[in-house]
Amino acid sequence: MVLKFSKFLSLTTSLAILASGVAHADNMEDLIAAAKAEGTLTTIALPHSWCNYGGVIAAFKAKYGLEVNELNPNASSGDEIEAIKANKDNTGPQAPDVIDVGLSFGPAAKKDGLIQAYKVSTWDSIPDSAKDADGFWYGDYYGVLALGSNKDFVPEAPTSFADLKNPKFKNSISLQGDPRTGNSTMMTVYAAGISTGAAAGGDAATAGIAYYKDLKASGNLVAANGNAQNLTQGATPVIADWDYNILAMRDKLAGNPPVEVTIPTDAVIAGVYVQAISAYAPHPNAAKLWMEFLYSDEGQIEYLKGYCHPIRFNDMNARNVIPADIMEKLPDAASYANAIFPSLEEQSAAKAVVADTWATEMGAQ
What tens digit of pLDDT does each residue of 272-317 get? Predict the structure, then answer.
């Protein structure tokens, strides 16, 4: 692929940017110029309401003047991977430059040669457990499973999975859907298992299924999916989802009805999403500049505005650079202190158990 660089870049400098795989403060000006010469960044699966991606994209465009071509905002992680595969030889507008996918998709994409290595200048402040050592993928934000309660129907909101067993929550508890097909639902079952004291991995899934089987037998679990409409109408007055989704829902409802968001005290389960650059990115420098923006303090704070905990949260909190008005809208930081980040191996073991036993135990089709 031949790139047309602006008059501000020498060919030597341009090639060095492409080959280095790393942009640091001393060559950011060159990276910015190379990205502007490409002119466009192509993203995929970034709905504006998810983690404030609308604000993230707007801030990036305003800062650097690049166009952002947004593909299929509602695509799944699997769709993103397929888009890279389908456009290996295509440098047109349907080829994504960057992806934002669930944790398990990062290592798989690296193994299949679909992504390229790149270490942002804030690399050292990204926890080692949330990044590939070679720079092929790295966590961008995480959510924690939370409970959202319609206060009109549930005056005293539950604060733990243990609370959900109380008879006062009869016909109140829901799951988002089928844990065999939805990640947040699967992790809710996993969290329920952890709350019982089960070991991480397959044991937690087994215990979580038993927990929800008992909840169904008691009449506390309802069949309707836990979503904004059912929460609002009271069909499912208590729902479980990632904290950023429920917090955003709370704000959108603006007190009609009032929604209380709590982090279960007996199972603080976190889920990480990761960023990566396509190995076939038509705009590699724009992709690298996008990463630099996302992992800067400015970009990480944009995530936090959408209630997604940025991966560099602890570093920024320690440096006191997070605006107080944003922190005030979040659940108490102490609620997240004991967050558990299930490993890929633990998640895989849990998913296998759910796939094998959920239907028979729950009577689900």
Answer: 999 999 999 999 999 999 999 999 999 999 999 999 999 999 899 8
Q: Which residues contact 311 (CB under 8 A, 6 or more apart)?
A: 126, 127, 130, 138, 139, 140, 141, 142, 272, 295, 300
Instruction: List 138's β-bridge partners, or say none.
Output: 131, 275
pTM of the model: 0.79
- Measured from the Cβ of residue 51, the count of other Cβ atoms closer than 10 Å reads 28
Give yes or no for a contact between 101 and 81, defined as CB atoms under 8 angstroms apart.
Answer: yes
Q: What is the pLDDT of residues 125-147, one digit of tens each?
A: 999 989 999 999 999 999 999 99
3-state secondary structure of 201: coil
Tokens of 109: 């994409």
Which segments in the chain show pLDDT lower than 70? 1-26, 364-365
What are 116's two structure tokens?
A: 């390229």
DSSP secondary structure of 266-290 = T--BEEEEEEEEETT-SSHHHHHHH
In angstroms, rounded to a whole number, what is the distance separating the alpha carbons of residues 358 and 217? 15
Q: Which two tokens stand for residue 311?
A: 């991966």
Total Cβ atoms within 10 A of residue 6 = 12
Enclosing H/E stretch for 239: strand 238-242
3-state percent helix, strand, coil for the chain, nearest multiple of 5: 45, 15, 40
Contact yes or no for 183/287 (Cβ under 8 A)? no
Quote the tokens at residue 104: 């398990």
